[in-house]
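=== Structure Prediction Worksheet ===
Name of assembly: unnamed complex
Input type: mixed (protein and possibly other molecules)
Chain count: two
Listed entries:
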Amino acid sequence: MIEARNLTKDYGDKRAVDGLSFTVEPGVVTGFLGPNGSGKSTTMRLILGLDAPTAGDVTVNGKHYRDHAAPLHEVGALLEARSVHTGRSAYNHLLGLAQTHGIPKSRVLEMIDLVGLHEVARKRAGQFSLGMGQRLGIAAALLGDPKTVMLDEPVNGLDPEGIHWIRNLLKGLAAEGRTVFVSSHLMSEMALTAEHLIVIGRGKLIADTSVEEFVARASQKVVLVRSPELERLRTTLSAPDVTFVAVENGALEVHGLTAAQVGDAAAAAGIALHELTPQQASLEEAFMELTREELEFGHKDEPAEVAA
Amino acid sequence: MSSLSPTVRIPRLESHGRVSFPRVLLSEWTKLRSVRSTAWSLGAGFLLTIAFPVIFSFVLSAHWGQMKPGERATHSSLEVALAGVNVAQLAIAVLGVLVITAEYSTGSSRSTLTAVPKRLPVLWAKLVDYWLLSLVLMIPAVLVSFFVTQAILARHDILQTSFTAPGIARCVLCGALYVMMVGIFALAIGACVRNTAGGIATFAGIFFVLPPLMFTLPQSWNNAISQYLPSEAGRQIFSLQHGAHTLTPLAGGLVFAAYCAAAVALAAFLLARRDV
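=== Predicted Assembly ===
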């Protein structure tokens, strides 16, 4: 279990994490979503005590990470950035970590076999491909048989077989009752593995919800309309939070309003509607919807949406 | 990966231990011995400690007959025997810096400090391991150097000195001690600076640039200040003769130890406080 309360981190003038509060429960895979640079990795560093929060607090399994007598048995973590000495072999890297907790060599060899690195275990880690580096990081995370597993972008650099393996691994870990917290900027990946989602944008919590609810909530606010007076309808509906996507001739996708709001507004303005359909958003779309504000600030000339 | 089965099972770990200092010590020892820079630097340190005195004593022995008495008087066989210490200290210092800065340049600091989040045991373990390793290496190196150079200079009675003569054993063994303390000082600097080039430059600045710079000061200032520089104070522990403007071996050793302690204290303070 991971509990963050009002977690905040500043780097100089830049606020990387902004008042985050959330709880990651055991027994399910919790996806940690956000665009690149939204503060996911920083949050994980704060959880591990690598960085100290500017304000707020975060505990793992009831304690600050630093206060655990055997931290590797509590949390197994894979960080996004490489965390291995390039001149040391995979075996010695894992052995060095294992020895801090008195974990036997047999366990090190077991983990090397588990992630399929036995053939290169004695090679220097600096020669590893991105995928091999990820496997080594996963072996390190599982070394201590931890109650909580926290992986930052674990599928980065993995081949399809490896990605498939990770999905099964995460589900298996959760089924054993462990807390599984996995970050990604890829919605499609989370759709396949996560049951619960914590979504952040620009360091702030955007959503803390189940995958189903997340999609449903975003879906309510996407409506397909067909009307002979599309231009007038567009003017009528215009508001700061509303965007339009031209779908085809005579049809428009309205983002940011429910079907009822669009219908009422059209009736009030006396505009005939030929179709009014709430759209079932994909997880990908739901995410875009929720993080749109951030994307607009981040990339002003994002071509995906047609501004009103 | 190895399996395509629908559920991946992680083998359970039977016994769960906790972090303890002996375990961190063992872990840091594994890390120290498992990178190439350790063997290279220590090998170089060991060989240089012996090679330079051996070469010097051959040269000195060959030229002894052509040297005037006044010139002969400036040479001491002890200085020849310990000439390698000045070179070895660079190798030991560079590795001392690397032991900690390589953690930051490669990112392995994140793994290390995730396994030992209390952090300070990692610094203590690195210091103890490095101290012991350089002890095991440098003590034999200075002893070999002393006895081999004595053998080479055997036909010059005036250059013969006994290991049991007053101060000789102290100087020889403290030559090794000096290098070990330099290693500690350099490791602490590395921990403060967290950057390999910066750490080595800082060390070289303090040990090799600062002392000659003092000669640009007025003589009285130089005399007053120089003896308290880390390198000058430290080298008194393996010097036989002491002038008006040098510290005694004990005082010099204590001053150098104080510098080392201050550097280690600053390193510990920064390690505990800074983000990784």
